[in-house]
User: Fold this.
Amino acid sequence: MIRTGLVVLAGLVSAVTVEAAVAVSPWWWIIASLCAVLAVVGAYDLMQKRHSVLRNYPVVGHIRFLMEYIRPELQQYFVERNFDGRPYDRSVRSIVYQRAKGTDAEEPFGTERDVYASGYEFLTPSLHPRQTAAAPPRVHIGGPDCQKPYDMALLNVSAMSFGALSPQAILALNTGARLGGFAHDTGEGGLSDHHLLPGGDLIWEVGTGYFGCRTPEGAFSPDLFAEKAATEQVRCVSLKLSQGAKPGIGGVLPGEKVNAEIARIRGVVQGKTVISPPYHQVFQTPRELVQFIRRMRELAQGKPVGFKLCVGSRRQFLSVCKAMLEEGSTPDFIIVDGAEGGTGAAPLEFADHLGMPLTEGLITVHNALVGVGLRDRVRIGASGKIATGADIVKRIIQGADYTNAARAMMFAVGCIQSQRCHTNTCPAGVATQDSRRARALDVPDKSLRVERFQRSTVSSAQQIMASMGVINPAELRPHMLMRRLGPSVIRSYQELYDWLEPGQLLAEAPAGWAADWKSAEPDSFHV
Assistant:
């Protein structure tokens, strides 16, 4: 109302000064013209639907776009940065915006990256490229105990809760998922009407707070879980063990964001800050974790069930693998969340210093499952700063079957990375429960951007694979990804890491794995 009132006021001042210019002095025409321009621009900003920032901040919002326009002088103030502080080449955010808007992402001249810098990675093209596959590949999710398998897309919406994101952002993401035929992870904040209304496929994430399936005391409720899991749009269920950006602590939703709707969906008190416990109440050991996953699948009537984690200790994950072997039961999928993953709010020391980066996490989980002979039963998802087709291809080479993106999907719905997520004052209406700010996000427009971004990025991954002589992602191998270690030293991932053979840990663990394998216990995380 205030913004609309200011635009109206500018129009009224313009009208009054026109009369003054006619009756008093022609100098009033300057003020009249200026106010008229402000009124027209402001009215246009309020009515247009492409830019949420301009709808929330008419006229003054143009300053942001002006500053981006005069790059490269201000480029390093806007360029997206890697986890280690190095700038992305060509700004990943710009690539996402272009694909989401359906504009051409090609640029003249060569790479902006230093190809001779240590750590530079590249994929190996083939001298005999293949024709790009006509249809995007799907990943079959569902082990031998699963009765209702699901075919997952190569790129999906990663876990972002309603509460952290606005109703409009959730609606746009799920509508985009429905339009594009990919999955939308709900995050641990529970199932809301905004997730269900568009009809897109959902991965229902259950965290330590058991939101949506909790008793009044905060414990897990089997009956509520079974009821929600039976929802048609819920295709898979994911048990969140830990999150890449803050492993070892629970999520936090500030009290100012906990309105009546969120309180109802989560089963919490309105207006009170919600802090999820750092651990699950329903299991204490790897064996109990595996048993609980099996129970969740039974309660979900055979739908795929898996878990998400940020890998910390290889020995602990091997403990889970031993529990799988002894129980004769496995999850249908495991989502590996990298330490470089983002979040709306986390202690800096946790974000910077805890957990394995995605590369090491993927290789650890993949090799462990291969080594115990269970890789064919479990699909692996990768989550952590995935935004381009090259990212998808690299993560598959490192051990993933499919990928999830959160930050890039937020860019697609209009996030400008103002880093106001925890304050409830997001200027783009993405990460806020302030209805006046959230209304600026136009759901029909942004849902199309989500669909376009996902489709273009998967298409890019297909084109890259075809240029490498590969059609099916299963044909990708570690020797196809190279890393520069020094000015004259380049090694492939095949050479850089140990890759186990099927069942190798059961026969004779290699030297690099022997100590962890021996000490891993299926009945304790803390040996």
Notes: The chain has two domains: 2-78, 138-517. Residues 2-78 form one domain. The longest helix spans residues 443-467. The first strand starts at residue 121 and ends at 123.
